[in-house]
Every structure is written in structure tokens, then in C-alpha cells.
Amino acid sequence: MNDQQHTPSRDVIDADLMVMTGGGFTPASLGPEEYDKMLARARANADAYLDEFEQRFLGPRFDARQQSNLQLPHVLELLSDAAPERTRELAERLLRQYDAVLVVHDEADQQALATVLPDHAMSLLYRLDDRRRELQRLLA
Fold this sequence. Notes:
The chain is an all-alpha fold.
């Protein structure tokens, strides 16, 4: 039985999602065969992957610091053809979470904000803002 004929275990889905969100999910990084295999497994089981994505990254488990270092919009984009409505709904929810965190960023003068926040905090805000723009493009 190949990967596309059964739903992978939650451990496999979780491990795949961590690779896919980690920023190194490319054919060059993983090797073309492993990349294609993982992407095919995720697309063939999009609902299960999106369920795990939702549990891990949305709602009470939202962690702005962690998510600023992850490529969550990219994963939604990769799965959007397999589950368009579900990925759109999750992208909208994720965007609302980013918007809530970035209220101060959006309302403040960026130069003034940079003088009162440490560099690591400003970097976090900039990375989240980049992710937010990716989600906005996905939803456009």
C-alpha cells in the first residue's frame, strides 16, 4: 500500500508539517524524490494535514514568536489546490491572528517603535508582517 492509499499516522503528519513549515521544504533541500513524496502524501490527505495544522497553529495554540519563524502561509498555498475552501478558511483565521498581534505595529510610527522595542521584538513583528502579506496574497 503506498502513501496515497491510506491516511498517514498523526506522527507522520506532524513530522511532515514540521518539515513543510520549517522553511527548508524544497526539492533542493530534501531531494526531489522525498519532496515529491511528502507533498503528494499531504495533498492526498489534505483534510488530515489541515486538521493537524489547525490544532497545532490556530486558536489557543497560537504562538506569535514560533510562527514568525515558520512558513505557515506556504503550506496553505501548497494544499490550496487539494482543499481550496478549507485552506481559505484557515488562511482567514490565521490572518486574523496575525492582525491582532500586529495592531501596535500597524498603528505606530515604525521608527518610533524601533526605538522602544528591542531588535528581536522588531524582527518578530517584521517577520509576522511578511507572513501576513503572504496570506493576503493567497486570499486575493
